[in-house]
Structure formats: structure tokens, C-alpha cells
Write a structure and sequence with these properties.
This protein is mainly alpha-helical. It is 76% helix and 0% strand.
């Protein structure tokens, strides 16, 4: 399959970029390598884009209804956000942490690609609302994942400061203020996207006769609530630093539980929708 070849090449490109970025991060004499690492990321991202486009043409819809599709699309969005925003925010070094995660997500997509084989469920075909629901939710996932990487980096850097270890890798990392500001910006992007995605999911469930409430939806709402608390703590409470970044790590645990729960929790709304739609189409 063409899309698998393109996706495999994209994964190889992300892996090569990871090597470049890591070398630049740990080798003092390699200060000029991050831009070349970004060049590799751009090449891999273009291959990734082509893979998703070919995949979508073959499926006749946006790839996003099965685990390998969501993994490929979410990692694509994450790398797109990094490539567009990191240069503007002067945080290119974050490629050393984003590129290995993209590599793992692409490999996971390739490894689970057989899950998506077979005929497409009727509810997952077409419809602008479904496309917007998938795109918005996965954009939220991508932004929250990048924010979590930066939150982990913040916690790691504060530990280095407490140990008074301000040499080596510490000198290559962004300042704590820059990291803290970037996590807030990313959550400010991801939170409204996630809320919009959930709202569209509710609306589509009503229009197709599906159920609103299920364990996976409840997990999603709890996750949104945690990120809402983060935004409130920043805007109203004036929280900054380690406290709010630790809150992001808690939010990410629930985010991953939501992602896994969509496919495995019993009586999940995403598991029931195809059957509901099939019954309506075939009384």
C-alpha cells in the first residue's frame, strides 16, 4: 500500500531528525545542527502529509476512525504545530523531544495498521460534522501532547536548577519562563479545539440517534475539566511554574485514558455509533 510506504519513509525521516537533534543537544560543538534537524523534520512532515492524503483518497474519507489512522493524523498535527510555532517562539530545540515522539507514534500507526482493514462503518463515512469533530479533537490531542512534553522539560530543568547542575544540556534548553509561556499558549490552542470537537460529537450523536453519555465521553469531559482548571489557575489565580506544569501532567494521564477508553471501554459511544447507524439504514 502506497500510504504505508510513505508513512514508513516519514517515520524514518523523523528518526533521522531525532539523531540530529540529540547530537546537537548533547554535543557542544554541534550548535549549528538543530536547523539541519528541522530540515529533516520538514522533509519527513511532507512525506507524512502525502501519506495521509493518499490514505484519505483510498478510504474516501478523513483518516481518523481507527487507531492507526488517529495515531498518524495526531502525530502529523503535532509536528505541523511544532514546525510552524517553534521557529516563531524561538524554541527549535524542542525538536529533540518532539521528533522521537513523532517517530514512536508513526511506528505505532504502522504496527496497528491492520486494525483498520476491512469495510468502513457507515457512521464513519463523510459528513462535514464528522470531519470537523475528528480534526478538532485530534488538534486538541496534538496541542496537549506538545504541552506535556514541555511541562516534563520544565520539571526536569527545575530539578537541574535545584541540583545546581547548570552545565551541559542545561545550557541548550529554553528558559523556564519561555517553557511556562509556551505550555500556556499550547493549552490556549488545544482547549477550545477539544471543546469544539466534543460539542460537535454531541451534536452528531443527537442527529444520528446515538447516545450522549458513556464512559469514554465522561473521561473526555473530565480531561477538559482539568485543562479548564489549568487555564483558570493561570488567568485568575495567577499560578505559574511547577504547580501548573504538574497539573498538565495529571491532565495528560486522563487524556491518554480517554484515547484508550474510546476503543476499549464497554458501552462507549464510539463503539455503539456504527451499530446504531446500521440499524437505521437497514431496518
Amino acid at each position: 500500500m502506497t500510504y504505508l510506504i510513505l508513512l514508513g519513509l516519514a517515520g524514518a525521516g523523523y528518526l533521522a531528525a531525532t539523531v540530529r537533534f540529540q547530537k546537537a543537544l548533547y554535543a557542544p560543538e554541534a550548535d549549528g545542527e538543530p536547523p539541519r534537524g528541522r530540515g529533516l523534520l520538514w522533509a519527513a512532515f511532507l512525506l507524512h502529509t502525502a501519506a495521509i492524503a493518499v490514505w484519505g483518497v483510498q478510504l474516501g474519507r478523513l483518516p481518523g476512525s481507527a487507531p492507526p489512522e488517529t495515531l498518524a493524523l495526531m502525530s502529523w498535527m503535532m509536528m505541523g504545530m511544532y514546525l510552524v510555532l517553534a521557529s516563531a517562539w524561538k524554541l527549535e530545540v524542542l525538536g529533540a523531544f518532539a521528533s522521537p515522539l513523532a517517530t514512536l507514534l508513526v511506528l505505532a500507526s504502522l504496527a496497528t495498521s491492520t486494525w483498520g482493514a476491512g469495510p468502513t462503518a457507515p457512521t464513519m463515512r463523510g459528513g462535514w460534522m464528522l470531519v470537523m469533530h475528528i480534526a478538532a479533537v485530534l488538534l486538541g490531542y496534538a496541542a496537549f501532547t506538545l504541552a506535556t512534553i514541555i511541562a516534563l522539560l520544565y520539571v526536569f530543568q527545575t530539578r537541574l536548577l535545584k541540583q545546581k547542575n547548570v552545565t551541559g544540556i542545561f545550557r541548550k534548553l529554553p528558559s523556564l519562563e519561555a517553557l511556562d509561556r509556551t505550555t500556556y499558549r499550547l493549552i490556549a490552542i488545544g482547549f477550545p479545539a477539544m471543546v469544539l470537537g466534543i460539542a460537535l460529537g454531541f451534536l452528531r450523536a443527537e442527529m444520528t440517534g446515538g447516545r450522549f453519555w458513556s464512559p469514554d465521553v465522561l473521561l473526555g469531559l473530565i480531561t477538559c475539566g482539568i485543562y479548564a482548571v489549568y487555564i483558570h489557575a493561570r488567568m485568575v489565580g495567577g499560578w505559574q511554574g511547577r504547580r501548573v506544569n504538574m497539573l498538565l501532567l495529571v491532565g495528560f494521564v486522563f487524556l491518554m485514558a480517554t484515547y484508550v477508553g474510546i476503543g476499549v471501554l464497554p458501552r462507549g459511544v464510539h463503539r455503539d455509533l456504527p451499530a446504531v447507524q446500521s440499524e437505521k439504514m437497514n431496518p
